[in-house]
Every structure is written in structure tokens, then in C-alpha cells.
Amino acid sequence: DDFAGRGVWRYAAALPFAEGVSLPEGDTQFHRVPRLEDEVGVESLRVKHEGMNPTGSFKDRGMTVGVRTAQALGVGRLACASTGNTSAALAAYGARAGLETLVLLPAGKVAAGKVAQASLHGARILEVDGNFDTCLDIVQDLAERGEAYLLNSLNPFRLEGQKTIGLEILEAHRADYGEYPDRIVLPVGNAGNTAALYKCFRELVQAGAMDRDEVPKLTGVQAAGAAPMVEAVEEGNDETRRWDHVETVATAIRIGNPVNAPKALPGIRETGGTAVAVEDDAITQAQRDLAGEGIGVEPASAASLAGLRKLRERGDVSADERVVCLTTGHLLKDPDAAAAAGADPEPVPGDTAGVLEHLGS
Ligand code: F0G
């Protein structure tokens, strides 16, 4: 493997294999955003941009390990249900491994860039008449019948790879500030990433590499139209109620039955974190604001900043906190959302005089 020891695989000691099917993934940007830091009003704010992975989302970190596992097991067909990013990652890593891939997508609810990726990387795409949760029900049935190997975040090997987000954040944050962050804010859909980060922290504490009181507060953000995790946190439950009707501009997290809730809810509670729901217009504004710092993200990713803002305004996050926001997917994943949030192109004549006149100069 050309990429052994790089990115995710730098942490092979914490992973079930020494190397994986790698493009390579991980080692993503850890941006300083001083203007947003001032505006939100926290001691420090960093943005970990997971949209910079090879297929444009954090799913690559899970898939490099997940597809390696599939190889080791010698399975035939790989499958997932997806709001888009998992399908793009599975298609690319499956192609790299030379394995057949099948993806189930909720018809009409997946952003254009993600479908294009799954398609060109050669996945067989089933457009399901139903939402993501229906797709996941079906693919779990297929896996139980031995029709395919499941590569959703229910697969624990996926979460092993995603632990490395936590390792990179902790390492970089301590190098810059001499301490770990107080809080990590992330968008939540199926709650796989939340569960992965919690496992990362638990393992470090168990290994004696981090004190219990140094563990960052895991803070989940959902869209108001798809917020069963927020409901569970507010009610103090360890499981979620299934939402049958979900809607949000952040299609990546348009999920009503977060299957990793039993692993993630204790993580939010035990770390002293919380969960918050944000409206679509706050998500879009946060997407514009991150873009204004040169950081291009898809709507679901911007939910992290929108959630931080809301918690800071409420006083649930204090001014002396060092915070990291996770942005999970790239702007180009959802070109339609980006175009709708941004400025409209201005038609002008095809000559300099006409352009100058239009500019008013
Ligand atoms: N952000 C983005 C961009 C995502 O694609 C997802 C999940 C999440 C956040 C939420 O992560 O599920 O670990 O809580 N996307 C999945 C998919 C569901 O199919 O691509 P989570």
C-alpha cells in the first residue's frame, strides 16, 4: 500500500489492521477562524474540515477500515443505505478494492454531487421510494439474508476508522494551545461519528493517555426537522423515538431513527455535553459564514457552527471555552444548496463597455 502510515493509518496502533484500502484519507485541515471566534464569543474556535477527505466527507475514514475488513472476510457484495456521503465513499473504496457495491438512496433526497460520485465510481444505485430510515431497514434485511456485507455505521469497523478524527483533533489542539479542547461540536444524523469520538476518548482514558476531566464535551447538532437525538437528550432518555416525518435543507442528516443512539447518547451525557436543534435558515447562514472564511461546506456541516451559536447565545457554552467545530462534508457535495445560499450570477453583454456600464464604473 502506497499510503501505509499516512492519515488515518498513522494511527494503525489504534485500528484493527496495520493498513487499509487507502486513497489516502485523514490528515484534514484544522482551520483558525479568528473572525468567527470573536463573533461567537469563545476563547478559541477551530474548524476541522472533514470535507477535505478524498471523496469529500469524513465517511472515508470509516470506509478505509470497513472495506479492508470486507477484504479480510472475503465477502462478495458491499452495501449501504445512505443520505449520500456514505454511498459516495463506499462506491470509491469498493472500486479501489475491486469489489461490487450496492447503495440504497432515498429517491429525490440525495444531493447531486453524491449521486454523481456513487454513479461514476460504479456502484449499483437503488433509488428507494422512502426515506433514509426505510433504506437502512431494507439493507439490514439484505445483510441478514447474506445478500450483502453491511457498511453503514452499524458496522463497528467503520467507527474504528472514524475514531481518528478525535485523535487528530486532540493532537493538533494540544500542539497549538497546550491543552485539549473543552468541547467538540458536530452534526448528528445516525450518531455514528458521535459514538466513534466517544470510543476514542474512552480508549485514551483507559490507556492512561488522557484524564477523565480532560475529555471534550461531545455536543451534537441536528436540524429542527429531524431531531430525535435532541429530543432524547432533553428528556434524559438512552434511546430515541423514531420520527417518521423528517425534513431539512441538510439532507445528509435527514434521519428519523439514529441507529447509533444507544452508543452515542451515553457519550453526550458522560462527557457533560449536550444536543441542540437548529432551523434551516440558521444552517444556511452558517454555511455562508464559513464560506466567507474560505471554508466551503455542505449544509449538514454548517449545522455545527449554527448549533454552537445557539448554545453560546443561550449561555450553555461559556465565553472561556476552547471549541472545535467539525465540518463533515464539502460544499461541492450539494451544488444546488450552495447556489441557493450564494449570490446569483449577473448576466452582462459580451463587451468591456457593457461590463463597465453594468459595474457602474
Ligand atoms: N454530516 C454529513 C455531511 C453526513 O453525511 C452525515 C451522515 C453526518 C454529518 C452525520 O453523521 O450519521 O455519524 O451522525 N451521513 C450518512 C450518509 C447518514 O449516509 O452519508 P452520523
Overview of this structure, please?
The protein has a 6-stranded mixed beta sheet, with helices on both faces. By secondary structure, it is of the alpha/beta class. The model has no long low-confidence stretch (mean pLDDT about 95). The chain has 2 domains: about 5-55 and about 155-340, 3-Layer(aba) Sandwich (Rossmann fold); about 60-150, Rossmann fold, CATH 3.40.50.1100. It is built from 13 helices and 10 strands. Helix 2 (about 60-75) packs across helix 6 and helix 3 runs parallel beside helix 4. The site of ligand F0G has 23 residues, from helix 3, helix 7 and helix 11. Ligand F0G binds near residues 298 and 329.
What secondary-structure arrangement, pairings included, does this model have?
Elements lengths: L29 E3 L1 H7 L3 E6 L9 H15 L3 E5 L3 H13 L2 E7 L5 H9 L3 E5 L3 H13 L4 E2 L5 H22 L5 E5 L4 H15 L10 E7 L4 H8 L25 H10 L3 E5 L1 H12 L7 H16 L7 E6 L7 H7 L10 H8 L2
Helix pairs in contact: 2-3, 2-6, 3-4, 6-7, 7-9, 10-11
The structure holds ligand F0G.
Note the overall shape: globular
Distance between the first and last residues' Cα: 57 Å
Query: What is the count of β-strands?
Result: 10
User: Tally the helices: what do you get?
Assistant: 13
Mean pLDDT: 97
Provide the structure class.
Answer: alpha/beta
What count of domains describes the coordinates?
2
The fold-level CATH name of the largest domain is Rossmann fold
Q: Brief overview, please?
A:
With 361 residues, the protein is an alpha/beta fold. 43% of the residues lie in helices and 14% in strands.
